[in-house]
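Hello,

Our lab assistant flagged a job as stuck in the queue for most of the afternoon. It eventually completed. Since we weren't sure the result was trustworthy after the delay, we are filing this so someone can double-check. Below is the sequence as submitted and the structure that was eventually returned. Let us know if re-running is recommended.
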Amino acid sequence: MIFKGKTALVTGAGRGIGRAIALKLAEEGALVAINSYSVQNTEAVAAEICASGGNALALPADVASSKAVELLFEKLLVQCERIDILVNNAGILRDQLMLHVKDEDWNAILDTNLKSVFLCTRAAIKVMMRARWGRIINISSVAAFAGNPGQAHYAASKAGIIGFTHSAAREVAKSGITINAIAPGFIETDMTAHLSDKQKAELLMRIPIGFPGTPQDIAETVAFLASNAARYITGQVITVDGGLTTG
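-- returned structure --
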């Protein structure tokens, strides 16, 4: 129970990687605030944690909205009075070749994937700086390094998270706050389910370890970075991809 007495907020926790992260932090004793855009998914994950003996509350909100994030943190602090761990996981994917990307698609990707990281981090550090302790983990992607056809807007948002992580970590390090990023590779989630068998086979051929990752692999890495075992790690990007980006 390494997070007993700690409060964590996980954005985009209604399914996939975010859900796995929330379950892991709760398993380790944290009170976990579940956030996603979907009220139904948010409440379902919170109920799942509580049913298994953990502590969770549902805080659905659109974290791409400054006003919504402000209200989200107001509710969180009224109910929990603190935030120790923030996992910025909210993200969307709208694959489209650049010639066909509409302005609204670009804005939606950048707002949800990148702007939300800034908004939630800004709100969290106000509390963490007073406590002189905090852990922030941002979920990026290996697409930030290599890119993929049809993902220019997605890759740009994930690369932005890495630049933000480096700079933000320097700003708050002396306040006892660490900020790191995780770049997942091919992880089996709803977001990768749209890939054809041929696409999956081609991806697997590029992964030295020979198999795709699971949301649990990312959750375990988050738990490590949020723990005191990682107290001397900040401003870093941990790639969890089975060796995909080594070549």
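-- support follow-up --
The delay was a queue issue, not a problem with the job. The result is valid. The longest strand covers residues 177-184. The first helix runs from residue 16 to 27.
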